[in-house]
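Task 17 of the worksheet. Students: predict the tertiary structure of the chain below and write it out as structure tokens. Keep your answer in the requested format; marks are given for formatting as well as content.
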Amino acid sequence: MRLRIFLLSFALLFFELLCIRWIPAYVRYLSYFTNFILLASFLGMGLGILASRRPRFRFPSFSVMALVLAAVVAVNRFELNISSTDVLYFGSGTHGWARAENFILLPLIFTFVAASFIPLARSLGMLFTQTAPLTAYTFDILGSLAGTAAFFMIGYFAVPPVYWFTTLGLLVVILSTRQGVTRSGLCFVAVSAIALFLQWNTHWSPYYKITLTPALPTGYNLDVNSIGHQSMIPWQAKEPFYRRVYELFPGSSFNHALILGAGTGSDTATALANGVHSITAVEIDPVIQKLGAQLHPDRPYSDPRVNMVNADGRVFLRNTVEKFDLIIFALPDSLTLTSSIANLRLESFLFTQDSLAGARAALTPEGVLVLYNYYREPWLIEKLATMVSRTFGRDSFVSTYGGQGRGAVIINGARLDEIPKTFGTYREDGTSASPSELRVTGEGFFPQTSIAAATDDWPFIYLPHKSFPAIYIRGLLVIAVISLAGIFWIAPRRTIRSFDWHMFFLGAAFALLEVKALTTFALLFGNTWNVNSLVFFAILVSVLLAVLLNARFAVRRIWIWYLLLFGMLALNLIVRPETLLLSNVLLRYVVASCLVFTPVFIANMIFSNSFRDAEMADVAFASNLLGIMFGGMLEYFSMLLGYHLLLLGVIGFYAIAMVLRPGTAVSTHS
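Model answer:
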């Protein structure tokens, strides 16, 4: 029975990570909403465990649900159309070029993913009623650790999806009954065949599904998650904003350049062609970097003047001791979230006021900072230009290009004095350009405005100001309705009446605590897939340690642990993550780990103590999962408040949970 709990938990966690990686690869733009898939998985697990209380529950098997899910994704090739200008999504249309948002697709995917988790979770819930609570939870956490480790290895070795589904299929076959083993095996053979068909001629990085198509007259176009991303073509054919900095400073080659977001190498090729003596090219995605080294027609990464670095750009800036006379932020516009529990994109901490200050510190006294991209919206150009101007204490020089996409170049640094004063204050020529035409339509020194800057606490460069975008409000409201409908449809009435609100609020608080841990470590050590995986692994280890201690020792004065928890949360509230950016990496890691993981451990001492004494362990566990889902939904308030103030929600929810703990005066009377 313990082995079965372990395998079920392994399969559930593995399937959760599989859905988060695989489905957005084939549903265009869903990679911006992977947290909705995570919320669906928690809902499905919660509903499945609640359904274990129903003696008769007719529902398709997990293998059938997995086959239908794979077939639906494969056959329909959905596209999530986004026309919102409240927040920018690169690759999607703006200014009315995109079609209206599809209000059916996201709820449909959410419902389908949630339903897929119900069969396995129901089996897990039934085992929880037959096993001592902490014993069951111990093997549940061990299985989750194994699932996390397995998917870490998949990311590390860039294993393609057919092996993901094969691994999941083997787990399901082992868990199947004698009557269902053949059906499960056949279903997953079909699922693996679908995955194999879809992955044909693709590459898989830790972040994306990557597809290459030939470009004319030579080179390749590179798509990620079915969205156009980069082109590997000769540097002369690239957009004019790649060359603008060299045109503004003619005849003066730069000695040492740093290119952040170097991608497949076009920025590097342009720099080499314009006489830059040495280049450090930093790219976060190892597979994109490797493809550029192999296939770019200009072969920039083969040039001895180029040093290729696979790293997070912000971390590189923080750790480098070199000085550069040219730093380029080279179109670092990712098309995915780095984690499913936080709205962080790969470049979120690269485009903050604090990061720009780090870039300035890495410049020589005569160095120049350059940003260019298709910025889509005028307010984003205004925002970035103002942030750069604040960093250097002088107005930035900006060139904007007509045509679709709102291309622009933003330049600042000591050498702005070399630009003729005749350019004057930024102004546009008032003429319109065709969507395919890229020519300068506006240029000059851009006046600073009062627009809100992105910071390390509020790293939302693609929001014009602190807000709760309507697109998320609508999505979350629909999810709330689906969730409530699912609970009242699946859970027996007696189970609903026994719903454990104490465990629910413990889950809500812990979800926000996880978000805070993840964002802190992403800031301190890099917003990369491996940092995120290691944080989750460390959280699970903290949970396991707390469970084992509660199983071994009789913890009775739980109020002491609440007091310790509130004390550590208050300390986290006082000590902001930015203050932990110590120059000594080892010291930074030790201090951050103590500050972040101590409240995680204490919180799980409280949870496992309550879970040990739960009269209905399955209902308590389901209540906790639904609470985690609720807390995950509240993460979106970070767009309004920043991440640090989410700690107030953590403190508030733990206070409510303490009041509702069985045996307290309030919960007894209620």
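Marker's comment: The first strand starts at residue 202 and ends at 204. The radius of gyration is 26 Å.
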